[in-house]
Design brief:
The protein starts with 7 loop residues before the first helix and ends in a 9-residue tail after the last helix. Strands 5-4-8-2-1-11-14-13 form an eight-stranded mixed sheet, with no helix packed on it. The chain has 13 helices and 22 strands. With 516 residues, the protein is an alpha+beta fold. The protein has a domain of 154 residues: Orthogonal Bundle (Neutral Protease, domain 2), CATH 1.10.390.
């Protein structure tokens, strides 16, 4: 996690400053959307439906100039509202009239329109700005990564404040048009479909469109010199992959992995249902960061993901997020398990498909290699706290919870749940509890205790809760043995054997090492 860890006392004090939008029928919008992990993230009083970003970036100087147009609807009578942003603003227009503005905190841009805004009315906000993103810091940290030939915006839980003003929280999704002017010979990569590319007077403009709701942290921008490959899926979706020209020894392995994007996505459609967006791809810029991120339609991969050779497992992980995390996003950052537990489990399913170890074998190995006294078992994936939001337990213990669910409800119901959830919740947000209720509805079983054990109870759960078949074979009374899946029916050995895929999956653990 990249943000400074918030001490409980500081968090409590910060929360006192976040006034819910519903607390008053008129007045200023709240300076935060109400997320207890990140009180400064997002804003109250309005919803954004579309961002139109018209940018120019000079790689030599890191100067970014922009005009952002936000289309929004007010949720209350507003005399003032906030945007999240860090660069220097020169002018703001609200419904065509100049607005007053001021800054506060680390990222709050306070906007006072010429006239108060009535509730439930459309509003157009135009922000003109310029600055060097790498010079803006939050707690001494920057989400903007400079490269030898440009810059990259890709981070979690936020990166937008470094390059465009926004309502920076996953609960306020919007569509995006991103138009970027860069010097000839340089490319600009963003989300969605490349609508057009034109050159004039030494500059080339790239126009990208993401036409489905997208969280602000999933918007990405990469400027540099790339080798770009294009293709289409069997259903006609465009695939755009981009690789920095100076990846060195990692270049071949990166291509050997990311070029399988179409194949992996088509396989995932069989697991999670129809792909939810208008484009596919991935990009590997020349950055020092080793993490990967599910930036919508075009995941970011740090080159170090491929330092030991090709690793398709990381591509599986980030593409699984297109369903679990991007289409269905968190309601609050404490709900991170419904993103990461399933992305990690998709890697286990890929291993199962490739014959390199079943999901049950991977679960048994994961469980066996963590002794009861390991702090790993003290992290609660269902509410890990901001300091543990990207802890390995959210991923691995989170995936164990998914395998426990599979064993409890059986394969038929389990895969109905995996495929039905992204359809029922498409383009929306959800809490962990929403998933639990959905799984109970589909399976027709009470599951609250299972999830309480695996997601919310510190300590190592009893092995019988994970592999009831093995427990029964050992003479124990495993729960709901009649509902076991085929992968669970063969008893696991007393000492599990390391699955063939384990090391490659473990190499992707840095996907959640967001540089702090």
């Amino acid at each position: 996690m990249h943000r400074k860890v918030i001490a409980p006392s500081v968090l409590a004090a910060s929360l006192l400053l976040v006034i819910p939008a519903s607390a008053a029928s008129s007045g200023p919008g709240a300076p935060g959307i109400g997320d207890p992990y990140y009180p400064a993230s997002g804003n109250g009083g309005y919803d954004v439906s579309h961002y139109d970003l018209r940018l120019q970036y000079q790689p030599k100087t890191d100067l970014l100039e922009g005009t952002a147009t936000l289309l929004a609807t007010t949720k209350q009578d507003l005399s003032r509202f906030n945007l999240d942003f860090g660069l220097k603003v020169s002018e703001i227009l609200v419904n065509g009239a100049k607005a007053r503005f001021a800054t506060s905190g680390t990222q709050e841009l306070e906007v006072t329109p010429a006239k108060p805004l009535a509730r439930n009315t459309p509003v157009t906000v135009v922000v003109k700005y310029a600055g060097k993103p790498s010079e803006f810091k939050v707690d001494g940290w920057s989400a903007w990564q400079r490269t030898p030939d440009g810059g990259v915006a890709a981070q979690e839980p936020d990166s937008a404040v470094w390059w465009f003003p926004s309502n920076d929280h996953p609960t306020d999704k919007a569509t995006f048009d991103v138009s970027v002017n860069v010097p000839d010979g340089t490319q600009a990569i963003s989300n969605g479909v490349l609508q057009s590319q034109t050159s004039r007077l030494g500059w080339t403009r790239y126009n990208w469109r993401s036409n489905k709701p997208q969280a602000t942290y999933l918007a990405t921008l990469a400027v540099g010199k790339f080798d770009i490959t294009t293709d289409r899926t069997a259903s006609g979706l465009p695939i755009v992959n981009a690789y920095s020209k100076d990846l060195g020894d990692n270049a071949g392995a990166a291509r050997a992995s990311v070029e399988r994007t179409g194949e992996v996505a088509e396989w995932l459609e069989g697991v999670f249902g129809p792909y939810p967006f208008n484009a596919l791809g991935g990009y590997v810029p020349n950055v020092t960061a080793g993490f990967a991120l599910e930036t919508q339609t075009r995941p970011f991969y740090g080159p170090r993901q491929f330092q030991n050779g090709a690793n398709v497992s990381v591509v599986v992980h980030e593409l699984a997020h297109q369903w679990y995390g991007d289409s269905v996003s968190v309601e609050g950052w404490k709900d991170i398990w419904i993103n990461e537990g399933f992305a990690r489990y998709s890697q286990w399913l890929w291993s199962e498909k490739e014959g390199e170890g079943t999901a049950q074998e991977l679960a048994d190995w994961t469980y066996a290699t963590r002794p009861a006294e390991d702090p790993f078992w003290q992290v609660k994936p269902g509410d890990p706290g901001p300091e543990n939001q990207f802890h390995g337990a959210v991923y691995d213990r989170g995936a164990l919870a998914v395998q426990a669910l599979r064993n409890e409800v059986g394969d038929e119901r389990f895969f109905q749940i995996l495929k039905g959830w992204p359809t029922e919740r498409a383009y929306g947000n959800a809490k962990v509890g929403d998933f639990v209720r959905y799984a109970e509805k589909v399976s027709r079983k009470p599951l609250a205790q299972l999830f309480e054990t695996w997601l919310y109870t510190p300590g190592k759960p009893d092995a019988s809760a994970l592999n009831p078949a093995a427990a029964k074979a050992a003479g124990q009374a495993g729960p709901s043995a009649s509902a076991q899946s085929p992968s669970a029916r063969s008893a696991a050995p007393a000492k599990p054997v390391e699955p063939k895929s384990w090391k490659k999956i473990a190499e992707t653990n840095t996907v959640h090492d967001h540089g702090h």
